[in-house]
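Fresh eyes needed here. I'd like your take on this protein's tokenised backbone:
***
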Amino acid sequence: MSDSDSNGFLWFLAGLGIGAAVGILYAPKSGRETREQILQAAEDGREAVTNRARQYRDQAGQWVDKSKQYVDSQKEQIKSAFEAGKSAYREATEAEKPAKG
């Protein structure tokens, strides 16, 4: 996760909290209604955080999978190059041996 994404998300959460507080101050209701509103806002915030965390976890999983595929691909290329070098060395050393006869 980049710093700008996390800073933006933190500002979003701060704005959500400030907006909820201002909304409560300027739209007074009974204590029970206000508590219900606060609980609902907290639940909405929790859901938003949970969804965002799920998105980041999924994205990280995708990056891990791509990284594994890249590493496996590089291993195969290195192995192929090594085998080709070994084969070329064998051919070269076989060609240098005098023929028995």
Observations:
- Residues 3 and 9 are 10 Å apart (CA to CA).
- The helical segments are 3-26, 31-96.
- The radius of gyration is 31 Å.
